[in-house]
Amino acid sequence: MEQAEIGLIGLGVMGANLSLNIAEKGNRIAVFNRTYAATEQFMKDAGELADRIIPCKTIEEFVAAIRPPRPIIIMIKAGDPVDQQMELLKPHLEKNDIMIDAGNANFRDTIRRFDSLKDSGLTFIGMGVSGGEEGARHGPSIMVGGTEESWKRVEPVLTSIAAKFNGEPCVDWLGNDGAGHFVKTIHNGIEYADMQMIAEIYGILRDGLNMSAVEIADVFAKWNKGRLNSYLIEITEKVLRAKDPISGRPMVDMIVDKAGQKGTGKWSAIEAQNMGVPATGIEAAVAARSLSSFKDQREAAEKILGLPASGDHGNVDRDKLIDDLEQALLAGKIGAYAQGFAVMAEASKEFGWSLPMPTIAKIWRAGCIIRSQFLDEITSAFTKDPDVANLIVTPAFADMVKDTDGALRRVISFAALGGMPVPALASALGYFDAYRRGRGTANLIQAQRDFFGAHGFDRTDGADKHHGPWGSGLADF
Ligand SMILES: NC(=O)C1=CN([C@@H]2O[C@H](COP(=O)(O)OP(=O)(O)OC[C@H]3O[C@@H](n4cnc5c(N)ncnc54)[C@H](OP(=O)(O)O)[C@@H]3O)[C@@H](O)[C@H]2O)C=CC1
Ligand SMILES: O=C(CO)[C@H](O)[C@H](O)COP(=O)(O)O
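The joint structure predicted for all components is written out below.
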């Protein structure tokens, strides 16, 4: 039998769909899954594409089915399973074979795996894939990290399966070792912030304006025709319209309000903190998911503390508030994306990647979960000024911040008075206000630090490492 050009391990949700996508684009592919029953089911469901797929029962069979030098995609549960799978594969591979981890790996693991294969003759690529089930099947956004030479070898097949935006493939090489997985992690961090802000706006429409799920769906449908046009807004509308087949009620009303998380949002926040770059939108979103999981505590606290009185809900101009909510969501998004790109800019320096900001924005325009019209505007801004300190000071985004600023303030005030939590939206406002204020309040913090710990401060008249006239600090008490 003719050998395959490529192999894929892991026929779960993503791997199965990616394999079909690869086969559909004319490639012959060998597949292997730890549990063979899944391979059998996959082949049954593959239809006409089964002719281009070689199902394999053992690793030996799988490796033999691929033409050397072999590109092998590993699309399995992230973490230890990837190390285990690599160890099982390694003895069967030959010089120049490439292992491509396409799961949501922590980029630090990717760097370790990349380094561990450096002198082995084998190559490692860490590749972020976004787009969920549908993206994997019909065109995901793909973020590649590894050597440029290894990228050149897999570029044709990855270009064939990636999503296209105005004909441009949403895949590119972003840098060495962990670059691709780092960018995917920040993609997910931004995804968390975007989803959290949409949920906060939904909360205001539901609890502040007492709107039904279907009424809220109509609002999102309208917004999806405007500047907020995006996949997440589109699916939010669909989710809100869906009916529970058991109770007949809106599906969303039947879902327990505890959000899961698998780690990428938390890693984004941790890495941002490690580098000292504020990513308050992502941090707020991760914390909100964690707080959501304390369902029992929240219910008990509501009994003890009650909910705040509903502010001026009765007097609110509903249409005006809905217009403000649209603007506020746009403002919040700008904050989250600006922070995500700032984190990537710093990581690029720290890890020596030269991450290409315009390219990252470009390959996120289609295929991935955060795809949107907005990302085309970010692409333009970074193409004009790839080294700008922050997205919000580019001319186009500075104008957007100024245009949406008032609405963001009004929405946060309304939510705060009514006791509706908006941590991610509020974090965006705090970020804008702190970032654009030339004279802040950290002078007082520096004085306090010097008072209790003799840490010193720089003086406004130019002298460095000065101490204040507070005597011996703690000894005064
Ligand atoms: N679902 C999504 O929307 C997205 C997921 N990802 C990432 O893609 C990867 C796969 O996710 P997804 O397809 O959703 O996961 P699924 O849960 O659908 O499938 C998991 C796959 O991993 C395999 N597996 C688990 N443990 C091991 C192990 N120890 N050794 C070998 N194989 C193992 C399973 O094999 P078996 O059948 O034998 O259990 C199965 O093929 C993950 O890293 C995920 O984070 C990335 C983007 C989007
Ligand atoms: O990578 C993805 C989307 O881009 C996956 O769906 C991921 O699982 C999302 O993260 P979480 O499960 O933590 O919400």
